[in-house]
């Protein structure tokens, strides 16, 4: 049993210079490590209107060749005031040779995705390998996600979705900044 009062013997690192040293396979994704926050916009043909949201995303590692991934979003109004909690998801990005990525992501809406793709030049592109749905989850057939580290120091995110009978198309786009950066 883990004693919650005791410090974890293998804490995650949030930066490339922290211990433990990152596994060599994480090299193409070192720029992703840390906590990011920002805003995005989303929509879908089945929704009455577009929405604006804020999001926090955390990437960490424990020295092995995978990233821990955690994302929380909440809807905001035009002034940025929080309206209500929105999507949450967490998972693991498993790094393989030549920058190949296998990502496992689960959501409290009953959706579990396995995505595959590649990390290169500060960009990760992921497409659906498999989706598993809980009995009461909405129908999701596929998604395509793109994460890009830009020259301005932002992490830009685009998410296309094929769901509820609609073909693959835009659902979300966001721009995040590393917490602590101005
Ligand atoms: C930042 C992350 C996300 C935000 C802010 C977001 C926001 C929303 C919102 C506001 C809706 C309308 C229903 C509602 O009000 O709850 C919605 C619907 C939906 N979203 Fe997302 N979403 C996110 C991520 C995802 C992801 C990762 C998936 C699946 C892979 C997904 C799949 C869906 C589906 C299937 C619907 C239902 C569409 C319908 O029934 O017409 N969303 N999303």
Automatic annotation (TrEMBL):
Pathway: Nitrogen metabolism. Gene3D superfamilies: 2.40.128.20. Residues 26-178 form the THAP4-like heme-binding domain. It holds the Pfam family THAP4_heme-bd. InterPro entries: Calycin, Nb(III)_bact/plant, Nitrobindin, THAP4-like_heme-bd. Heme b binds at residues 46, 138, 171. It is an enzyme of class 5 (isomerase). Binds 1 heme b group per subunit, that coordinates a highly solvent-exposed Fe(III) atom. One of its GO terms (molecular function) is heme binding. A motif (GXWXGXG) lies at residues 34-40. Its cofactor is heme b. Its EC number is 5.99.-.-. Forms a 10-stranded antiparallel beta-barrel structure able to accommodate a hydrophobic ligand in its interior. In fact, this fold hosts the heme group, which is located in a wide surface cleft. Heme-binding protein able to scavenge peroxynitrite and to protect free L-tyrosine against peroxynitrite-mediated nitration, by acting as a peroxynitrite isomerase that converts peroxynitrite to nitrate. Therefore, this protein likely plays a role in peroxynitrite sensing and in the detoxification of reactive nitrogen and oxygen species (RNS and ROS, respectively). Is able to bind nitric oxide (NO) in vitro, but may act as a sensor of peroxynitrite levels in vivo. Belongs to the nitrobindin family. This is Peroxynitrite isomerase. It comes from Streptomyces piniterrae. The lineage of its organism: Bacteria, Bacillati, Actinomycetota, Actinomycetes, Kitasatosporales.
């Amino acid at each position: 049993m883990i004693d919650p009062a005791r410090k974890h013997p293998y804490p995650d690192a949030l930066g490339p210079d922290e211990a433990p040293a990152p596994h060599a396979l994480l090299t193409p994704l070192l720029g992703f490590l840390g906590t990011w926050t920002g805003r995005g916009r989303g929509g879908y043909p089945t929704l009455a209107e577009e929405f604006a949201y804020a999001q926090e995303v955390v990437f960490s590692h424990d020295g092995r060749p995978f990233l821990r991934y955690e994302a929380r979003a909440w809807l905001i109004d035009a002034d940025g005031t929080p309206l209500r909690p929105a999507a949450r998801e967490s998972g693991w990005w498993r790094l393989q040779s030549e920058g190949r990525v296998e990502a496992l992501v689960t959501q409290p809406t009953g959706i579990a995705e396995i995505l595959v793709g590649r990390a290169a030049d500060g960009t990760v592109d992921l497409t659906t390998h498999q989706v598993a749905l809980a009995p009461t989850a909405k129908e999701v057939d596929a998604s395509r996600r793109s994460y890009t580290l830009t020259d301005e120091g932002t992490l830009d995110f685009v998410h296309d979705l094929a769901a509820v009978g609609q073909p693959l198309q835009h659902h979300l786009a966001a721009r995040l900044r590393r917490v602590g950066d101005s």
